[in-house]
């Protein structure tokens, strides 16, 4: 099935990717989601919307981001060539702004005056606060008190950008409670507000909207790589948390003779609670309003998860990923904390690029595969830059001396 036909067919009208996806909502929110779906399906095809989004990407975000050949890192690993799609050079330093700017523009076109979200580590909050500032929208970000204490620089960024950061002090005071608080706000205020989900997850239409706004990454990368090389890469890979950077990167290659691999965090190991590799260890279930593959505890609730990369520690995955694995088009693999930290240091030393710990998982997989393949090429989506992770990495791993002979 070609790319255009695939996009027409998936998701279905009721938001399904095969058996996965859908919208499991409290009845009060059904009309709100229906309004967003209808508005999106009309607005996203208008030339006014398309042209405005193009202008924003070019002039504000700095797109297209380049594709870069890692010559020295590739030589160190053997003969297989590693290339990076440089989303770390997208404004604010990661891919998240791609869908936040799209969601902000949609809110503007729909005549909403406010956008809200929850945030864990603060990356989504900062991207959304940036979009709100750009579009002149009010912005409220819900964040657990524990996360606020841990993520002071991101809290400061959101506030400087003009967002209201609301501390959530119920339960464990982290992401889950922040989600509940943001939903509560949305239930009260959906007439003038849009809830902006931070990844390709949640009830329909969010997995579709976020995917569509992220596809610019794969579309650019495919053209850029073809222009550079005259052919396509053998393997494309990206890290998978909720699955937004990966789905946008993968889909434009869906009809090509290219192997596609998503990489999940193995964290400290295989035991439940030590990783966040939902696709590798999870089973089907419903959480946060959609049907997908998820990690459950003994009672069937979302299990505790862990990864050194806070952007990857989500107990489920976007429904389109579950579907693409089921039909055999995309494979999912894992990389541990240590492999990710090794990749973090190697890319820094060999290429002068400090990657986000999230992106380092995809790079770790690419490095492993490059050694096995011994020839050919791998294109990695470098979803973000690593400045945010420096303090943590240095405190726990020094300056990488112990990774010199890591294999
Ligand atoms: C949030 C984040 C991710 C994970 O989110 P996805 O929705 O899976 O893409 C990956 N990389 C970076 C840099 C992030 O900030």
Explain what the structure shows.
The chain has two domains: 23-58 and 96-207, Rossmann fold, CATH 3.40.50.1100; 62-93 and 215-403, Rossmann fold (3-Layer(aba) Sandwich). It contains 16 helices and 14 strands. The protein has helices at residues 3-9, 30-43, 47-61, 71-77, 96-109, 123-135, 145-150, 152-160, 175-189, 206-229, 244-250, 278-281, 319-326, 337-351, 357-373, 390-397, and strands at residues 16-17, 20-21, 67-70, 81-86, 114-118, 138-144, 164-168, 193-195, 235-239, 259-267, 283-287, 290-294, 331-336, 377-382. The strands form four sheets. The chain has a six-stranded mixed beta sheet, sandwiched between helices. The radius of gyration is 20 Å and the shape is globular. The chain starts with a helix and ends in a 10-residue tail after the last helix. The chain binds pyridoxal-5'-phosphate. Pyridoxal-5'-phosphate is lined by residues 94, 96, 123, 199, 239-246, 311-312, 356, 358-359, 383-384. The site of pyridoxal-5'-phosphate has 19 residues, from helix 11 and helix 15.
List the helices and strands and how they pair.
Elements lengths: L2 H7 L6 E2 L2 E2 L8 H14 L3 H15 L5 E4 H7 L3 E6 L9 H14 L4 E5 L4 H13 L2 E7 H6 L1 H9 L3 E5 L6 H15 L3 E3 L10 H24 L5 E5 L4 H7 L8 E9 L10 H4 L1 E5 L2 E5 L24 H8 L4 E6 H15 L5 H17 L3 E6 L7 H8 L10
Parallel strand pairs: 4-14, 5-6, 5-8, 6-7, 9-10, 9-14, 10-13
Antiparallel strand pairs: 1-2, 3-4, 11-12
Helix pairs in contact: 3-5, 5-6, 5-10, 6-8, 10-11, 14-15
The chain binds pyridoxal-5'-phosphate.
The site of pyridoxal-5'-phosphate has 19 residues, from helix 11 and helix 15.
């Amino acid at each position: 099935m070609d790319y255009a036909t695939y996009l027409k067919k998936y998701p279905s009208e009721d938001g399904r990717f095969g058996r996965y996806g859908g919208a499991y909502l409290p009845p009060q929110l059904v009309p709100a989601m229906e309004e967003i779906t209808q508005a999106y399906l009309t607005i996203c095809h208008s030339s006014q919307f398309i042209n405005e989004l193009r202008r924003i990407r070019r002039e504000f975000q700095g797109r297209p981001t380049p594709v870069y050949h890692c010559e020295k890192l590739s030589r160190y690993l053997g003969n297989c060539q590693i290339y990076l799609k440089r989303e770390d050079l997208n404004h604010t330093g990661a891919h998240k702004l791609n869908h936040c700017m799209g969601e902000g523009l949609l809110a503007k076109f729909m005549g909403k005056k406010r956008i809200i979200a929850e945030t864990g580590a603060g990356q989504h909050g900062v991207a959304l606060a940036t979009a709100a500032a750009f579009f002149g929208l009010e912005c409220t970000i819900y964040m657990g008190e524990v996360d606020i204490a841990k993520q002071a620089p991101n809290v400061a960024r959101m506030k400087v950008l003009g967002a209201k950061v609301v501390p959530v002090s119920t339960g464990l005071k982290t992401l889950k409670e922040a989600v509940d608080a943001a939903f509560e706000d949305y239930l009260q205020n959906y007439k003038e507000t849009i809830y902006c989900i931070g990844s390709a997850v949640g009830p329909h239409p969010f997995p579709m909207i976020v995917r569509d706004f992220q596809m610019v990454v794969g579309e650019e990368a495919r053209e850029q790589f073809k222009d550079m090389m005259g052919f396509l890469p053998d393997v494309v890979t990206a890290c998978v948390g909720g699955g937004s950077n990966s789905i946008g990167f993968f889909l434009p290659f869906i009809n090509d003779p290219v192997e596609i691999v998503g990489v999940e965090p193995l964290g400290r190991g295989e035991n439940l609670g030590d990783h966040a590799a939902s696709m590798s260890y999870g089973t089907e279930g419903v959480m946060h309003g959609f049907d997908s593959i998820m990690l459950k505890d003994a009672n069937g609730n979302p299990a505790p998860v862990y990864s050194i990369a806070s952007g990857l520690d989500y107990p489920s995955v976007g429904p389109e990923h579950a579907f693409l694995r089921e039909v055999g088009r995309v494979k999912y693999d894992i990389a541990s904390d240590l492999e990710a930290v090794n990749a973090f240091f190697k890319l820094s030393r060999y290429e002068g690029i400090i990657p986000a710990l999230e992106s380092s998982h995809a790079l770790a997989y690419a490095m492993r595969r490059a050694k096995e393949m011994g020839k050919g090429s791998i294109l990695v989506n470098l979803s973000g830059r690593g400045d945010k992770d420096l303090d943590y990495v240095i405190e726990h791993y020094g300056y990488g001396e112990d990774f010199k002979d890591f294999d």
